[in-house]
Known about the structure:
single chain, alpha+beta, 11-stranded mixed beta sheet, 15 helices, 31% helix, 22% strand, globular
Amino acid sequence: MRTIKKFTERSRAAAVLCVALAALLAFPGAQAEDVFAQEAQALLDSQQTDLPADLEVGYLASEGAEINPVYCTERDLVSINQLVFESVVELDDTQKPVPLLADSWTVEGNVWTFRMRSGIQFHNGLECLAQDVVASYESLLAAGSSNPYYGRLTLIESMTALDSLTLQVTGRFSGMITLYAMTFPVMERSTLADPMPRGTGPYWYISYVSGSSFRLERNPLWWKQQPEIESINGRCYYSTAEALEALQTGEINCFSTRSYSAAFNRRLSDYMTVDYPTATYELLVPNLSSSSPMSDVLVRRAVMYAIDRATLVSNAYLEMAQQSEVPIAPGSWLYESQSAVYYYSPERALQLLNEAGWENLTGTSRLTRIGEDGLLEDLEIRIITYTDSLSSVRKNAAEQIGANLSAVGFNVTVDTGTADQVGGAISSGSYDLALIGVNLSEVPYLVPLLTEGGEINFSGAHTQEMDALLERTLTAATEDEMLQAYSELQLYLVDRLPILGLAFRTGCLLSTRQLAGLSGSREYDVYNGLEFVSN
Protein backbone atom coordinates (compact mmCIF):
# COMPACT_ATOMS: atom_id res chain seq x y z
CA MET A 1 0.00 0.00 0.00
CA ARG A 2 2.93 2.34 0.72
CA THR A 3 4.19 1.98 -2.84
CA ILE A 4 0.76 2.78 -4.25
CA LYS A 5 0.46 5.81 -1.96
CA LYS A 6 3.85 7.15 -3.05
CA PHE A 7 3.00 6.65 -6.70
CA THR A 8 -0.20 8.60 -6.21
CA GLU A 9 1.65 11.42 -4.44
CA ARG A 10 4.26 11.49 -7.20
CA SER A 11 1.55 11.73 -9.84
CA ARG A 12 -0.05 14.57 -7.89
CA ALA A 13 3.33 16.34 -7.71
CA ALA A 14 3.75 16.01 -11.46
CA ALA A 15 0.26 17.40 -11.98
CA VAL A 16 0.99 20.37 -9.72
CA LEU A 17 4.17 21.11 -11.66
CA CYS A 18 2.27 20.95 -14.94
CA VAL A 19 -0.29 23.41 -13.58
CA ALA A 20 2.54 25.70 -12.49
CA LEU A 21 4.18 25.54 -15.90
CA ALA A 22 0.90 26.17 -17.64
CA ALA A 23 0.45 29.23 -15.45
CA LEU A 24 3.91 30.45 -16.39
CA LEU A 25 3.04 30.24 -20.05
CA ALA A 26 -0.36 31.81 -19.58
CA PHE A 27 0.57 34.70 -17.31
CA PRO A 28 3.63 36.82 -18.09
CA GLY A 29 5.94 38.54 -15.58
CA ALA A 30 5.11 38.99 -11.92
CA GLN A 31 1.66 37.39 -12.18
CA ALA A 32 3.25 34.16 -13.44
CA GLU A 33 5.70 34.26 -10.58
CA ASP A 34 2.85 34.63 -8.06
CA VAL A 35 1.12 31.57 -9.50
CA PHE A 36 4.40 29.66 -9.43
CA ALA A 37 4.95 30.56 -5.79
CA GLN A 38 1.45 29.33 -4.86
CA GLU A 39 1.95 26.03 -6.63
CA ALA A 40 5.45 25.63 -5.17
CA GLN A 41 3.95 26.01 -1.70
CA ALA A 42 1.44 23.31 -2.60
CA LEU A 43 4.36 21.04 -3.34
CA LEU A 44 5.89 21.78 0.05
CA ASP A 45 2.58 21.10 1.76
CA SER A 46 2.36 17.68 0.07
CA GLN A 47 5.54 16.50 1.86
CA GLN A 48 7.51 15.81 -1.28
CA THR A 49 10.54 14.53 0.61
CA ASP A 50 8.54 11.35 1.38
CA LEU A 51 8.42 10.54 -2.32
CA PRO A 52 10.92 8.05 -3.75
CA ALA A 53 13.61 9.46 -6.06
CA ASP A 54 15.85 8.18 -8.81
CA LEU A 55 18.83 9.07 -6.63
CA GLU A 56 19.12 9.30 -2.85
CA VAL A 57 22.06 11.49 -1.80
CA GLY A 58 23.56 11.92 1.65
CA TYR A 59 25.11 15.22 2.70
CA LEU A 60 26.62 16.85 5.77
CA ALA A 61 25.30 20.19 6.98
CA SER A 62 24.84 21.99 10.23
CA GLU A 63 21.52 22.94 11.79
CA GLY A 64 20.18 26.08 10.15
CA ALA A 65 22.25 25.71 6.96
CA GLU A 66 20.82 27.70 4.04
CA ILE A 67 20.79 26.79 0.36
CA ASN A 68 20.44 30.33 -0.98
CA PRO A 69 23.89 30.77 -2.63
CA VAL A 70 24.22 34.22 -1.03
CA TYR A 71 24.29 32.60 2.41
CA CYS A 72 25.21 28.99 1.67
CA THR A 73 28.58 28.09 3.22
CA GLU A 74 28.25 24.31 3.62
CA ARG A 75 30.57 22.46 1.23
CA ASP A 76 28.09 19.70 0.34
CA LEU A 77 25.23 22.13 -0.29
CA VAL A 78 27.43 24.39 -2.43
CA SER A 79 28.11 21.29 -4.53
CA ILE A 80 24.40 20.43 -4.81
CA ASN A 81 23.68 24.03 -5.84
CA GLN A 82 25.81 23.48 -8.95
CA LEU A 83 22.92 21.36 -10.24
CA VAL A 84 20.45 24.20 -9.68
CA PHE A 85 22.33 27.37 -10.62
CA GLU A 86 24.49 28.17 -13.64
CA SER A 87 27.13 30.81 -14.22
CA VAL A 88 28.18 33.11 -17.04
CA VAL A 89 31.38 31.08 -17.46
CA GLU A 90 31.99 27.51 -16.29
CA LEU A 91 35.12 25.44 -15.80
CA ASP A 92 35.47 22.39 -18.02
CA ASP A 93 36.94 19.05 -16.94
CA THR A 94 40.45 20.52 -17.09
CA GLN A 95 39.32 23.63 -15.16
CA LYS A 96 39.63 25.83 -18.22
CA PRO A 97 37.01 28.62 -18.41
CA VAL A 98 34.44 28.10 -21.20
CA PRO A 99 31.12 29.82 -22.05
CA LEU A 100 27.91 28.77 -20.27
CA LEU A 101 25.21 31.41 -19.86
CA ALA A 102 27.39 33.65 -22.00
CA ASP A 103 27.47 32.82 -25.69
CA SER A 104 30.70 34.70 -26.35
CA TRP A 105 32.94 37.48 -25.10
CA THR A 106 35.45 40.06 -26.25
CA VAL A 107 38.16 41.87 -24.31
CA GLU A 108 39.98 45.15 -24.61
CA GLY A 109 42.57 45.75 -21.91
CA ASN A 110 40.89 44.76 -18.66
CA VAL A 111 37.33 45.39 -19.94
CA TRP A 112 35.38 42.28 -20.89
CA THR A 113 32.10 42.34 -22.80
CA PHE A 114 29.94 39.22 -22.47
CA ARG A 115 27.06 38.45 -24.81
CA MET A 116 24.42 36.41 -22.96
CA ARG A 117 22.52 33.58 -24.62
CA SER A 118 18.96 34.58 -25.42
CA GLY A 119 15.89 32.61 -24.39
CA ILE A 120 17.34 30.93 -21.29
CA GLN A 121 14.64 30.78 -18.61
CA PHE A 122 14.87 30.76 -14.86
CA HIS A 123 12.86 28.20 -12.91
CA ASN A 124 10.03 30.73 -12.62
CA GLY A 125 9.84 31.15 -16.40
CA LEU A 126 11.49 34.59 -16.59
CA GLU A 127 14.30 35.09 -19.06
CA CYS A 128 17.86 35.23 -17.76
CA LEU A 129 19.17 38.72 -18.44
CA ALA A 130 22.39 40.67 -17.85
CA GLN A 131 20.63 42.54 -15.04
CA ASP A 132 20.22 39.25 -13.16
CA VAL A 133 23.94 38.62 -13.41
CA VAL A 134 24.75 42.06 -11.99
CA ALA A 135 22.26 41.67 -9.14
CA SER A 136 23.64 38.21 -8.28
CA TYR A 137 27.21 39.53 -8.30
CA GLU A 138 26.33 42.43 -6.02
CA SER A 139 24.47 40.23 -3.53
CA LEU A 140 27.21 37.60 -3.35
CA LEU A 141 29.90 40.26 -2.94
CA ALA A 142 27.91 42.02 -0.22
CA ALA A 143 27.69 38.75 1.72
CA GLY A 144 31.39 39.15 2.53
CA SER A 145 34.29 36.77 2.93
CA SER A 146 32.17 33.98 4.42
CA ASN A 147 30.65 33.43 0.99
CA PRO A 148 32.66 30.79 -0.92
CA TYR A 149 32.62 32.92 -4.08
CA TYR A 150 33.89 36.08 -2.40
CA GLY A 151 37.56 35.59 -3.31
CA ARG A 152 36.93 35.33 -7.04
CA LEU A 153 34.46 38.21 -6.99
CA THR A 154 37.19 40.52 -5.65
CA LEU A 155 38.96 40.02 -9.00
CA ILE A 156 36.20 42.20 -10.52
CA GLU A 157 36.39 45.99 -10.30
CA SER A 158 32.91 46.69 -11.68
CA MET A 159 30.03 45.11 -13.59
CA THR A 160 27.35 46.80 -15.69
CA ALA A 161 24.46 45.60 -17.85
CA LEU A 162 24.76 47.54 -21.12
CA ASP A 163 21.46 46.08 -22.28
CA SER A 164 19.36 43.03 -21.49
CA LEU A 165 21.85 40.59 -23.01
CA THR A 166 25.15 42.48 -22.87
CA LEU A 167 27.34 42.54 -19.79
CA GLN A 168 30.42 44.71 -19.32
CA VAL A 169 32.95 43.66 -16.68
CA THR A 170 36.08 45.54 -15.66
CA GLY A 171 38.64 43.20 -14.20
CA ARG A 172 41.10 43.97 -11.43
CA PHE A 173 43.77 42.55 -13.72
CA SER A 174 44.03 42.59 -17.49
CA GLY A 175 44.44 38.85 -17.99
CA MET A 176 42.23 35.79 -18.43
CA ILE A 177 42.05 35.43 -14.66
CA THR A 178 38.90 37.60 -14.89
CA LEU A 179 37.07 34.73 -16.61
CA TYR A 180 37.43 32.65 -13.44
CA ALA A 181 35.70 35.42 -11.54
CA MET A 182 32.59 34.88 -13.69
CA THR A 183 31.94 31.37 -12.35
CA PHE A 184 29.51 32.46 -9.62
CA PRO A 185 25.86 31.29 -9.48
CA VAL A 186 23.33 33.48 -11.30
CA MET A 187 19.91 33.90 -9.66
CA GLU A 188 16.72 35.59 -10.86
CA ARG A 189 17.02 39.01 -9.28
CA SER A 190 13.53 39.24 -7.76
CA THR A 191 14.16 35.99 -5.82
CA LEU A 192 17.59 36.83 -4.38
CA ALA A 193 16.24 37.08 -0.85
CA ASP A 194 14.12 33.93 -1.09
CA PRO A 195 15.06 30.77 0.81
CA MET A 196 15.11 29.00 -2.56
CA PRO A 197 16.08 31.49 -5.30
CA ARG A 198 15.44 30.58 -8.92
CA GLY A 199 18.30 29.41 -11.10
CA THR A 200 18.61 28.18 -14.67
CA GLY A 201 20.20 24.78 -14.01
CA PRO A 202 19.10 21.25 -14.98
CA TYR A 203 17.34 20.76 -11.62
CA TRP A 204 15.20 22.90 -9.37
CA TYR A 205 14.41 22.75 -5.69
CA ILE A 206 11.02 21.27 -4.84
CA SER A 207 11.62 21.45 -1.10
CA TYR A 208 14.33 22.12 1.44
CA VAL A 209 14.16 21.54 5.19
CA SER A 210 17.28 22.80 6.93
CA GLY A 211 19.07 20.07 8.86
CA SER A 212 16.82 17.42 7.35
CA SER A 213 16.39 17.04 3.60
CA PHE A 214 15.95 18.48 0.14
CA ARG A 215 14.28 17.35 -3.06
CA LEU A 216 15.29 18.23 -6.60
CA GLU A 217 13.32 17.57 -9.77
CA ARG A 218 14.60 17.98 -13.29
CA ASN A 219 13.85 21.37 -14.77
CA PRO A 220 11.51 21.08 -17.79
CA LEU A 221 12.53 24.61 -18.82
CA TRP A 222 16.24 23.75 -19.06
CA TRP A 223 17.83 24.96 -22.26
CA LYS A 224 19.80 21.73 -22.82
CA GLN A 225 18.70 18.11 -23.20
CA GLN A 226 16.55 16.88 -20.31
CA PRO A 227 18.41 14.82 -17.67
CA GLU A 228 17.54 11.13 -17.46
CA ILE A 229 17.70 11.20 -13.66
CA GLU A 230 14.37 12.81 -12.96
CA SER A 231 14.49 13.30 -9.18
CA ILE A 232 17.03 13.53 -6.36
CA ASN A 233 16.36 13.31 -2.64
CA GLY A 234 18.95 14.60 -0.21
CA ARG A 235 19.20 13.38 3.39
CA CYS A 236 21.13 15.38 5.94
CA TYR A 237 23.56 13.77 8.38
CA TYR A 238 25.69 15.32 11.08
CA SER A 239 28.70 13.01 10.83
CA THR A 240 30.56 11.02 8.20
CA ALA A 241 30.00 7.84 10.24
CA GLU A 242 26.21 8.34 10.10
CA ALA A 243 26.27 8.90 6.35
CA LEU A 244 28.50 5.88 5.69
CA GLU A 245 26.16 3.69 7.74
CA ALA A 246 23.22 5.00 5.72
CA LEU A 247 25.09 4.12 2.53
CA GLN A 248 25.74 0.60 3.79
CA THR A 249 22.11 0.05 4.80
CA GLY A 250 20.75 1.36 1.49
CA GLU A 251 19.09 4.46 2.93
CA ILE A 252 21.08 6.52 0.42
CA ASN A 253 22.74 5.68 -2.92
CA CYS A 254 25.75 7.97 -2.70
CA PHE A 255 27.77 10.19 -0.44
CA SER A 256 30.82 12.37 -1.04
CA THR A 257 33.45 12.93 1.61
CA ARG A 258 36.98 14.14 2.26
CA SER A 259 37.16 12.24 5.53
CA TYR A 260 39.91 9.67 6.00
CA SER A 261 37.35 7.43 7.70
CA ALA A 262 36.06 6.68 4.19
CA ALA A 263 39.45 5.34 3.06
CA PHE A 264 38.50 1.73 3.82
CA ASN A 265 35.02 2.00 2.31
CA ARG A 266 36.37 3.22 -1.02
CA ARG A 267 38.18 -0.10 -1.46
CA LEU A 268 35.01 -2.18 -1.17
CA SER A 269 33.92 -3.79 -4.43
CA ASP A 270 30.27 -2.98 -3.67
CA TYR A 271 30.92 0.73 -4.22
CA MET A 272 31.58 2.74 -7.30
CA THR A 273 34.16 5.37 -6.38
CA VAL A 274 34.90 8.71 -8.03
CA ASP A 275 37.98 10.46 -6.63
CA TYR A 276 38.18 14.22 -6.98
CA PRO A 277 40.79 16.86 -6.10
CA THR A 278 40.20 19.30 -3.29
CA ALA A 279 41.73 22.73 -2.80
CA THR A 280 43.70 21.63 0.29
CA TYR A 281 47.39 21.59 -0.57
CA GLU A 282 49.80 19.75 1.72
CA LEU A 283 53.25 21.31 1.87
CA LEU A 284 56.35 21.80 3.96
CA VAL A 285 57.07 25.40 4.93
CA PRO A 286 60.85 25.87 5.20
CA ASN A 287 62.51 28.21 7.68
CA LEU A 288 64.49 30.42 5.31
CA SER A 289 66.39 32.33 7.99
CA SER A 290 70.16 31.85 8.14
CA SER A 291 69.82 30.02 11.46
CA SER A 292 68.22 27.02 9.74
CA PRO A 293 69.80 24.49 7.35
CA MET A 294 66.66 24.99 5.23
CA SER A 295 67.98 28.39 4.15
CA ASP A 296 70.24 26.50 1.71
CA VAL A 297 68.42 25.59 -1.50
CA LEU A 298 70.66 22.53 -1.90
CA VAL A 299 69.39 21.20 1.43
CA ARG A 300 65.79 21.91 0.40
CA ARG A 301 66.33 19.97 -2.82
CA ALA A 302 67.89 17.13 -0.83
CA VAL A 303 64.77 17.02 1.35
CA MET A 304 62.56 16.67 -1.72
CA TYR A 305 64.64 13.77 -3.05
CA ALA A 306 64.74 12.10 0.37
CA ILE A 307 60.94 11.97 0.87
CA ASP A 308 59.21 8.88 -0.44
CA ARG A 309 56.06 10.71 -1.48
CA ALA A 310 54.38 7.68 -3.06
CA THR A 311 54.52 5.84 0.26
CA LEU A 312 53.55 9.04 2.07
CA VAL A 313 50.36 9.31 0.00
CA SER A 314 49.59 5.60 0.32
CA ASN A 315 50.28 5.10 4.02
CA ALA A 316 50.02 8.42 5.87
CA TYR A 317 47.32 9.98 3.67
CA LEU A 318 45.54 6.64 3.13
CA GLU A 319 45.56 7.13 -0.66
CA MET A 320 43.37 10.20 -0.31
CA ALA A 321 45.91 12.60 -1.82
CA GLN A 322 47.45 13.29 -5.23
CA GLN A 323 51.15 14.02 -5.53
CA SER A 324 52.02 17.48 -6.77
CA GLU A 325 55.19 19.49 -6.23
CA VAL A 326 53.43 22.68 -7.31
CA PRO A 327 50.20 24.39 -6.15
CA ILE A 328 48.45 23.58 -9.44
CA ALA A 329 46.60 20.25 -9.38
CA PRO A 330 47.57 17.59 -11.94
CA GLY A 331 44.71 17.36 -14.44
CA SER A 332 44.37 21.12 -14.67
CA TRP A 333 45.07 22.59 -18.09
CA LEU A 334 47.59 24.87 -16.39
CA TYR A 335 49.58 22.06 -14.74
CA GLU A 336 53.16 21.82 -15.99
CA SER A 337 54.11 18.13 -16.14
CA GLN A 338 57.81 19.01 -16.22
CA SER A 339 57.44 20.33 -12.68
CA ALA A 340 57.48 16.70 -11.47
CA VAL A 341 61.20 16.97 -10.88
CA TYR A 342 61.79 15.16 -7.60
CA TYR A 343 61.69 11.39 -7.43
CA TYR A 344 62.52 9.26 -4.40
CA SER A 345 66.31 8.97 -4.37
CA PRO A 346 68.21 8.86 -1.06
CA GLU A 347 71.41 8.68 -3.11
CA ARG A 348 70.69 11.95 -4.90
CA ALA A 349 69.66 13.54 -1.58
CA LEU A 350 72.96 12.52 0.03
CA GLN A 351 74.93 13.85 -2.96
CA LEU A 352 73.24 17.26 -2.63
CA LEU A 353 73.88 17.35 1.11
CA ASN A 354 77.55 16.65 0.47
CA GLU A 355 77.63 19.50 -2.07
CA ALA A 356 76.14 21.74 0.63
CA GLY A 357 79.01 20.84 2.95
CA TRP A 358 77.32 18.21 5.09
CA GLU A 359 79.40 15.05 5.34
CA ASN A 360 79.92 11.96 7.46
CA LEU A 361 82.88 13.23 9.47
CA THR A 362 82.28 11.13 12.59
CA GLY A 363 81.74 7.65 11.17
CA THR A 364 78.14 7.64 12.42
CA SER A 365 74.90 7.79 10.46
CA ARG A 366 74.59 11.52 11.14
CA LEU A 367 75.94 14.24 8.84
CA THR A 368 78.01 17.09 10.23
CA ARG A 369 80.12 20.01 9.07
CA ILE A 370 82.77 22.25 10.54
CA GLY A 371 81.17 25.49 11.69
CA GLU A 372 82.61 28.99 11.61
CA ASP A 373 83.90 28.47 15.13
CA GLY A 374 85.88 25.42 14.01
CA LEU A 375 83.62 23.01 15.88
CA LEU A 376 81.51 20.23 14.41
CA GLU A 377 77.81 20.93 14.04
CA ASP A 378 75.13 18.31 13.35
CA LEU A 379 72.59 18.50 10.57
CA GLU A 380 69.71 18.95 13.00
CA ILE A 381 66.18 19.92 12.02
CA ARG A 382 62.86 20.27 13.83
CA ILE A 383 59.70 19.27 11.99
CA ILE A 384 56.44 20.61 13.40
CA THR A 385 52.86 19.86 12.48
CA TYR A 386 49.36 19.90 13.96
CA THR A 387 46.53 17.44 14.36
CA ASP A 388 42.85 17.64 15.11
CA SER A 389 40.49 15.51 17.17
CA LEU A 390 39.36 13.52 14.14
CA SER A 391 42.63 12.56 12.48
CA SER A 392 46.32 11.95 13.16
CA VAL A 393 47.15 11.91 9.46
CA ARG A 394 49.59 14.83 9.54
CA LYS A 395 51.34 13.45 12.61
CA ASN A 396 51.85 10.16 10.78
CA ALA A 397 53.01 12.02 7.67
CA ALA A 398 55.49 14.12 9.64
CA GLU A 399 56.91 11.03 11.32
CA GLN A 400 57.38 9.30 7.96
CA ILE A 401 59.09 12.38 6.54
CA GLY A 402 61.31 12.43 9.62
CA ALA A 403 62.23 8.78 9.07
CA ASN A 404 63.06 9.46 5.40
CA LEU A 405 65.32 12.37 6.37
CA SER A 406 66.98 10.43 9.18
CA ALA A 407 67.90 7.76 6.63
CA VAL A 408 70.10 10.24 4.72
CA GLY A 409 71.84 11.73 7.75
CA PHE A 410 69.52 14.34 9.28
CA ASN A 411 69.12 14.42 13.05
CA VAL A 412 65.34 14.90 13.18
CA THR A 413 62.93 15.91 15.92
CA VAL A 414 59.19 15.75 15.16
CA ASP A 415 56.85 17.82 17.33
CA THR A 416 53.07 17.90 17.16
CA GLY A 417 50.79 20.57 18.59
CA THR A 418 47.69 22.57 17.86
CA ALA A 419 47.36 24.77 14.79
CA ASP A 420 47.87 27.83 16.99
CA GLN A 421 51.04 26.37 18.48
CA VAL A 422 52.42 25.60 15.05
CA GLY A 423 51.56 29.11 13.90
CA GLY A 424 53.39 30.54 16.89
CA ALA A 425 56.47 28.41 16.19
CA ILE A 426 56.53 29.59 12.58
CA SER A 427 56.21 33.21 13.67
CA SER A 428 59.06 32.88 16.16
CA GLY A 429 61.26 30.90 13.77
CA SER A 430 61.61 27.98 16.18
CA TYR A 431 61.29 25.30 13.53
CA ASP A 432 62.97 24.10 10.34
CA LEU A 433 60.10 22.47 8.45
CA ALA A 434 56.37 22.86 9.13
CA LEU A 435 53.97 20.34 7.61
CA ILE A 436 50.69 22.17 7.00
CA GLY A 437 47.70 22.22 4.69
CA VAL A 438 46.63 25.45 2.98
CA ASN A 439 43.27 26.02 1.35
CA LEU A 440 43.72 27.31 -2.18
CA SER A 441 40.96 28.00 -4.71
CA GLU A 442 39.81 26.52 -7.99
CA VAL A 443 40.73 29.95 -9.32
CA PRO A 444 44.50 29.75 -9.99
CA TYR A 445 45.20 32.91 -8.00
CA LEU A 446 48.47 32.22 -6.17
CA VAL A 447 49.18 35.70 -4.83
CA PRO A 448 48.23 34.87 -1.20
CA LEU A 449 50.69 31.94 -1.22
CA LEU A 450 53.66 33.46 -3.00
CA THR A 451 53.86 37.21 -2.41
CA GLU A 452 55.42 39.13 0.44
CA GLY A 453 52.79 39.54 3.12
CA GLY A 454 50.51 36.97 1.48
CA GLU A 455 48.08 35.59 4.04
CA ILE A 456 49.24 31.98 3.52
CA ASN A 457 52.88 32.75 2.66
CA PHE A 458 54.15 31.42 5.97
CA SER A 459 57.80 31.15 4.94
CA GLY A 460 57.86 34.80 3.89
CA ALA A 461 59.56 33.82 0.63
CA HIS A 462 59.80 36.82 -1.65
CA THR A 463 61.88 37.69 -4.71
CA GLN A 464 61.46 40.20 -7.50
CA GLU A 465 61.72 37.36 -10.01
CA MET A 466 58.81 35.49 -8.42
CA ASP A 467 56.76 38.69 -8.28
CA ALA A 468 57.35 39.20 -12.00
CA LEU A 469 56.28 35.64 -12.77
CA LEU A 470 53.13 36.05 -10.69
CA GLU A 471 52.32 39.32 -12.46
CA ARG A 472 52.47 37.51 -15.80
CA THR A 473 49.88 34.97 -14.61
CA LEU A 474 47.53 37.87 -13.88
CA THR A 475 48.05 39.75 -17.13
CA ALA A 476 48.19 36.85 -19.61
CA ALA A 477 45.49 37.74 -22.13
CA THR A 478 45.40 34.54 -24.25
CA GLU A 479 45.39 30.83 -23.47
CA ASP A 480 48.91 30.43 -24.86
CA GLU A 481 50.19 33.34 -22.76
CA MET A 482 48.51 31.94 -19.66
CA LEU A 483 49.95 28.46 -20.20
CA GLN A 484 53.42 29.90 -20.65
CA ALA A 485 53.15 32.14 -17.59
CA TYR A 486 52.02 29.34 -15.30
CA SER A 487 54.58 26.95 -16.73
CA GLU A 488 57.45 29.33 -15.97
CA LEU A 489 56.13 29.99 -12.46
CA GLN A 490 55.86 26.27 -11.66
CA LEU A 491 59.37 25.54 -12.95
CA TYR A 492 60.70 28.40 -10.83
CA LEU A 493 58.98 27.00 -7.73
CA VAL A 494 60.49 23.53 -8.08
CA ASP A 495 63.91 25.03 -8.73
CA ARG A 496 64.03 27.56 -5.88
CA LEU A 497 61.64 25.75 -3.48
CA PRO A 498 60.19 28.66 -1.48
CA ILE A 499 57.70 25.95 -0.46
CA LEU A 500 58.20 22.20 -0.58
CA GLY A 501 55.04 20.89 -2.24
CA LEU A 502 53.79 17.40 -1.45
CA ALA A 503 50.22 16.69 -2.55
CA PHE A 504 46.64 17.84 -2.96
CA ARG A 505 44.15 16.19 -0.65
CA THR A 506 41.42 14.30 -2.50
CA GLY A 507 37.85 13.39 -1.70
CA CYS A 508 35.74 10.56 -2.98
CA LEU A 509 32.17 10.02 -4.06
CA LEU A 510 30.98 6.60 -2.88
CA SER A 511 27.96 5.19 -4.68
CA THR A 512 26.04 1.92 -4.67
CA ARG A 513 24.77 2.59 -8.19
CA GLN A 514 26.49 3.31 -11.46
CA LEU A 515 26.99 6.99 -12.18
CA ALA A 516 28.94 6.63 -15.42
CA GLY A 517 29.09 10.03 -17.04
CA LEU A 518 30.28 12.07 -14.09
CA SER A 519 33.35 13.98 -15.19
CA GLY A 520 35.50 16.78 -13.87
CA SER A 521 34.23 16.31 -10.31
CA ARG A 522 35.70 18.83 -7.90
CA GLU A 523 35.39 19.64 -4.23
CA TYR A 524 32.61 22.21 -4.73
CA ASP A 525 31.12 20.49 -7.78
CA VAL A 526 31.12 16.80 -6.92
CA TYR A 527 28.12 15.96 -9.10
CA ASN A 528 29.42 17.67 -12.22
CA GLY A 529 27.87 15.93 -15.24
CA LEU A 530 25.07 14.23 -13.29
CA GLU A 531 22.59 15.71 -15.73
CA PHE A 532 24.13 13.51 -18.44
CA VAL A 533 24.14 10.25 -16.42
CA SER A 534 21.81 7.47 -17.55
CA ASN A 535 19.12 6.44 -15.10
